[in-house]
Every structure is written in structure tokens, then in C-alpha cells.
Amino acid sequence: MSEYRIAKPEEREAYIELANYVFSKAHCPHDFETLIPKVYGEGVESAFMHRVAVDEKGKLRAQIAVLPETLMAGGHPLRAGYVGTVSVHPKARGEGHMKILMEDWLKEMRKTCDLAVLGGQRQRYEYFGFTRGGVQVKYTVTGDNIRHALKRTDIQGISFVPLREAEGAAAFVCRKNEERPFWVTREPESVLTIVETADERPLAIKKDGQLAGYLLTGKDGKTIYELVTERQEDLEAAVKAYLAYAGVQETEIYVPAFDKNLNQCIGRFAEYYSTEPSGMYQIFDFANVLEAYLTLKQNTLGLTPGEFSAYLDGQPVTVRVTDAGVCVERKALPGAVVLEKQQAQQLLLSDYGRYMEVPSPAGWFPLPVFWYTADSF
Length: 377
What we know:
- By secondary structure, the chain is an alpha+beta fold.
- Helices cover 29% and strands 32% of the residues.
- Strands 1, 2, 3, 4, 5, 6, 9 and 15 form an 8-stranded mixed beta sheet that branches. A 7-stranded mixed beta sheet has the order 8-10-11-12-13-7-14, sandwiched between helices.
- β11 and β12 form a beta hairpin.
């Protein structure tokens, strides 16, 4: 009989070894201590984040971790659990460990979280109540775009250095993060480790020797996952200067739909763009999530006034949007539509909602749910 429980601190080496073995065998070589240092780095206590399956000999056969996160969306606090490091030893597959561990985590998160987040194969996690959705915009910027559209953009004085080498970088990243209309908490003492998640390469943007912004790029330098400048007018120069610095002819830039300034800037000269789902999500408290993300959308992209009432996975909700803001009540109006969990999440989170015969105000959905890679697991 296997035992299912929270990992013990003394099992740190064992759960890291299991993750490295499983992911390296299935994909490319993995080193979780380097890949996710905010969870697996030296001195980080993370045993409490791991539920494990342990056999009769005390060996770990499977595990699922959940990173607890607090966030602000549209000025409203939310609690999230980011699911990661889903690992089942090849010799233990088919024994039902993942199902038990995931159900144990979901039972706990229903009590402690407003929503759960993960990345993974769609159907695999739909079995557990997750829905692919949210919104991100992916731009492709080429050297030709730079040469023609930004030929008059002055990059003199723009330079790049590793973020850790820039004086005041930690405070700068924390301040700019919390100036966003959506942000996941990044603690000052660990923020420079957080921005190294998933092999991101953090670069400070300097202008005339002063810290003016930062970039989080992919390992090969061809992807920008996060672009922040102190001044809006420096965004174009930062992109132009980065392509020259990295020596690449093309880069992809990921932007949340609600970042109006960055979308306006990059969209003006990018060769291509596409709107994509941003991840997989499961909503536990529909009223809280609706209030937060509709407020975020109203404050950034705008919403048409209207009313929406429904039973969402058994939870009664009525939402009203006026020029004064978003109002959410935990009750449903007579005749309110009744939606099961997957139906409710497809309506709220995905573009599939437009094909559902559900009365909802135009443009409200999908909600602009998005997670920066640095805040992922």
C-alpha cells in the first residue's frame, strides 16, 4: 500500500531527484534547482508544497507540487495555487498515484484558493476540472520591422547588463510589478531569484548609465517574456536595442491583453501577432474571480454596461457593470442560466464562449487571465 502525504523536509533531495529523473527521461535534461530556484534553490524550504506517494520501502513514486500565490487583479486580492512538478516514476505509472495526489490537492485548494493554475496537455487536466483559457498576445518582431518602422528611433545610450549587476534592481522590479493592474506578489528578498524561473535571462535596461527598465528573455535570446521600462517612450528603443544586443533577426514578445501601453507600442510595428490562451485554470470561487478580472478589464480595455446572472458550478452569481464599476452579488436572478463547471469556465475563460447559447454582455468574456512566466511554476 502506498502512503499519500505532504513531503518531509528531509526528503528534499529525494523529491528533486524524482523530478529531474522523470522530466529528463521524458524531455530534455532537467535540473530543477536551476530551472525553478525560487522553489528548489539552496536554502529554500519547499517540502510543504509537495504531496508525495511513498511505497512500502519509503521510496517516492510520484509527486505533485502546488506553489501558493497571492495576487491583485483590478485592485482585488485573490489567492491562487500554481500546480507544477507533476512527476510519476516510469515504473509506477498506471497505479493511480497522480489521480489521488491531484484530488487531494484540489480538495485543499477549494478551501484555500480562488483559482488554480497550471500548464500542460489539455485533455489530461480537463479530467481534473481545468480549462484552457485566459488571454495573451504573441508578437513577432523582425529585423525588417526594426529597420523600417523604427529607423528614426534613437538607441544611443541604451545598454544591457545582467539584472543582478544593476544597482537597485530588486526594488525597481518590485515597484514596477506592483504598478501593474495585475500582479502576483514578488518578495523583495527573493525577486531576483523569481525572475530566473524557467531559465529566463533577466537583463537590466540602462539609459545613459541609469536603470531604465528590464527584460526577461528566453535561454536562446529569441523570446521576450517580460518587458518593462520606467518611461513609455523608451519601449521602442529597448526593443530595437535588444535585437542588436542579442544578435537575433527575430524575436517573439508575449504581452498580457490588459497591458494597453505595451500592446499599443509593439502592435505598431510587429510583423505578426496572434491572440492565444495563456494557460489552464480552474475556478473555485466564481464571484471573486469575476469581480477581480472584470474590474481589471473595465479599467484597462473597457466594458459595455450590462448584467449577467447564472449558476456557475452551483454557485449563484449576478454581475452588474455600470460606469461606476463592477458589482457582484452571490445570488442569481429568476431564470438565470445553469452551467456545469466546464461550461462555466469555457464561457468565462475561452473564446469558445462566443459559440455557446448563453446570454452574456458582448465583450465581457474571456476574462483577461494571464500569468507572467516568472510567476509560474
